[in-house]
Amino acid sequence: MDKNKQLTVEVKDGELSITIGVEVLAPALLYGLNYDRTEDARDFIKITDPNKFAEGVVDALKDEWEEDGVTLVHKMLNSAANLAVENATEAIVFPNEGGNKVPVDRT
Fold first, then answer.
1. Strand partners of residue 71
2. What pTM was estimated for this model as a whole?
3. Rounded Cα gap, residues 61 and 29, in angstroms
4. CB count, 10 Å around CB of 54?
5. Judgement on whether residues 89 and 44 belong to the same structural domain of the protein
6. Distance (Å, rounded) from C-alpha 76 to C-alpha 87?
């Protein structure tokens, strides 16, 4: 494991993998935060334990946002899937648009 690994998103061995080292995660997220919308979060927040911070991020990613079990990860994957459809990825077929009438697998 590489605690300094840059963010990677890939499909490998039949799995979607999103990986980032804990030493990269903390400053990357702080850079994207706006503490009070006018100031840089790095001026107000110091992460003293990147591992514990990463564990807190994981907990937040797995927390249910809605009573039906939806989490931030579900929302992220759903948004990415919608973009893939909008960009007409080669992996999908629109059965009602002529051409191959391939049934859509809804399982």
1. 64
2. 0.71
3. 13
4. 20
5. no
6. 17
